[in-house]
Amino acid sequence: MNRENLFVKIVLNAWELNIKRASSTIEGFTDDDLFTEISPGKNRVVYLLGHLTAVHDNMQPLLGIGERMYPQLDEIFVSNPDKKIKTLPPVKDLRANWTNLNEVLASKFHKMPVEEWFQKHSSISEEDFAKEPHRNKLSIVITRTNHLSYHWGQIMLAKK
Amino acid sequence: MNRENLFVKIVLNAWELNIKRASSTIEGFTDDDLFTEISPGKNRVVYLLGHLTAVHDNMQPLLGIGERMYPQLDEIFVSNPDKKIKTLPPVKDLRANWTNLNEVLASKFHKMPVEEWFQKHSSISEEDFAKEPHRNKLSIVITRTNHLSYHWGQIMLAKK
Predict the structure, then answer these.
(1) B159 contact residues in A (CB cutoff 8 A)
(2) Of A40, A134, A154, which has the smallest distance from its Cβ to B13's Cβ?
(3) Chain segment A92-103, per-residue pLDDT in tens
(4) Which of B54, B61, B104, B105 could join B73 in a cystine, given CB atoms 3.0 to 4.6 angstroms apart?
(5) Confidence (pTM)
(6) What is the ipTM of this complex?
């Protein structure tokens, strides 16, 4: 296995491992459990589920692998804090979005030619990328894996 | 910059960014704040501080860059859950261990020849590494960065 393949494999392995763990935690919650706050007065699990789905979905345009599938989640789960928007989508839909998106991303990630992971993502200019070549598509997945871990650690606190 | 250098840079950048953010959060806490639980009945911030220090310190033997500096932390912050061991080291020492270790690791990480990051870490056999070359030293830093993010997300909940 050449080095480029190896890098991609390390990064995707870490992503998938964390998605798997977070999914398993979320699946262990009843619909009622999803409305538990991770700590008194803080975000509810359902908010973090929608937030992670929206942020992960946004990797599609960032990595140039497709359009957003659930842009409607941004208003509720990214632009506004939890409890600001009173009416949430049905929990059933949020769960389905999460699962579906994970499958779509896994499939697209594995289809992406290795060389493409070393190209720039869509929110950096050609000029900046020439100076900072580490800001490539692979670095987006590393950053999002850390963001996922950050919120998964919080979601774990709502486990009974 | 060649691909190997680039990849090491991406991984170390992510590590340093998260260490910097977590340190800034911890420095923002008073000594009393450190004894706040991240959620009722859950770990106190001070436990997570000791836990992260111990786990990060353990990267030294894992990566072959030195002996443990604070092995005494394991008993209190890794082998046992929070509040099991009643007498903790002084907070001043725990803060100093964290800061000192971060500096030592940053320095050692930057001195490590790029090629060495692609060698096996000390807890995998030559035989397994031959089959799974992605389990190299660099993958340890990626895993530990995710672990750090996981607990940093929890520590953030104790912020006032």
Answers:
(1) none
(2) A134
(3) 999 999 999 999
(4) B54
(5) 0.97
(6) 0.96
